[in-house]
Give the backbone structure.
Amino acid sequence: MAHFYGRLTGGGQEVTRCGTETSGMSASIKGWNVGIEAFLRRDISTGKDVLSIHLTGGSNGARMPYGFLELREGGNEWIINLASPLKEKV
């Protein structure tokens, strides 16, 4: 049975996908110089959902992530961790 549900729209028809607690889900959306990669999984040690979003350099081949956001389910709230591996440009 699906634990996660995703939807993607673009130039064609809308598509949906399901993920289980075991499989999780992942998706990427990219422009040429900017993009995101998203991962949704179940943390088996806590039994809570974890959403990770990586900000990337897009489709131009840049592999280094520009930033990272992680949301962890925590009862009635979400715990947010934000990290940026690159120094701010002046």
Remarks:
- The chain is about 0% helix and 55% strand.
- Residues 21-83 form one domain.
